Amino acid sequence: MSSSVSKTCRSLFSTSAIRFAKLQGIALMVGLASCAPNTPTAPPQAGGSPGAAPAAGGTLAISGAGATAPNPLYQRWFREYNTQNPAVQISYDSVGSGAGVRRFLDGTVDFGATDAPLLDKERQALPAARGQALQIPSTGLFVVFAYNLDGVDNLRLSRESFCGITDGSITTWNDPLIVKDNPGVTLPGDPITFVHRSDGSGTTDIFTKHIDEACPNWKAGGGKTVEWPTGTGAKGNEGVSAQIQQTRGAIGYTEYSYANETKLKMASIQNKAGEFITPTPEAASRALAGAQVPADFALAVPDPEQKDAYPIVSLTWILLYENPQDPAKAKAINEFLKWAYSPAGDQAATELGYIPLPDDLSSKAATALDTIKVAAN
């Protein structure tokens, strides 16, 4: 982080906790030694390059690319913000966190988006002229096991069961472990089709880091891409959700809002405390309680200990440049993000099943944005 933006930051998550979940008496304490923001570059105009002049009529055309998990929320935010600010048009290409990070580092977008915090090697790959690569949290999200199984509406999966499905050691729906998890339920002998991401994915990063913690026999590690021991791949949360929807006996991981929008069934899964937790935004919010958010906002809670917490949860981030190539666009992006932290932005997040940032965290993120070199008024 740049020393010019380093500062002492106190706790981010206060007893206001996560507004969305209305948690009572839970404080999400954040230790921030320094808070650094990010700055966007300008998107390439047709036939041009980053930093090209605004479109005709004074409209600022801003482009971003990256994570598919927050895409439904981002699209709604961009539409609503444009209604209130017609001169600012933000487009977003939902290509996955891996591709989004690459486009950000290449400077072909004004901002990137990722569900996986930047790696040191990715930060080092940013051209020096852009300054530091900075990540600003936008919202919280969670990943679910969505499934397609006729006659089974409330599937429960112990850690042994979902670990076995993911590593390929459990291959049929009437496996004794799954039967044990679901007393009184008639499970078919159909083969299990596990659906995973085929592209570099922050959702995969969130999911596999949990699997790596929860599953003793998991050998593939965690990250945006892994060598899957079983299953079939699909691109994006959109593709995974569609593949599950079209395949009888399928189960896979996808972000909650996609499963909810497509009316996919979602399994209750066992957390570290041994409780079977139904995936809801409220339960996901509890996974963040007590977490320590580091200086670069790269919060990680791969296997939360809270008894009533849903266990596969993360923040997601907007990637900005410390030294933006187009200060006017940087200013517009900063103003948009501050609007996203407002009650209007929170309402959209809540309605779509995301987790709005608590007041303290959004305040620190907004302060970080203020250090970016943007156009003067």
TrEMBL record:
One Pfam family of this chain: PBP_like_2
Domain PBP: 54-343
Similarity comment: family membership: Belongs to the PstS family.
Classification via NCBIfam families: 3a0107s03
Keywords annotated in UniProt: Phosphate transport, Transport
GO biological process, one term: phosphate ion transmembrane transport
Record organism: Myxacorys almedinensis A
UniProt-listed CDD domains: PBP2_PstS
GO molecular function, one term: phosphate ion binding
Transmembrane feature ranges: none
GO cellular component: a single term: ATP-binding cassette (ABC) transporter complex
Protein name: Phosphate-binding protein
Classification via InterPro entries: ABC_phos-bd_PstS, PBP_domain, Phosphate-bind_PstS
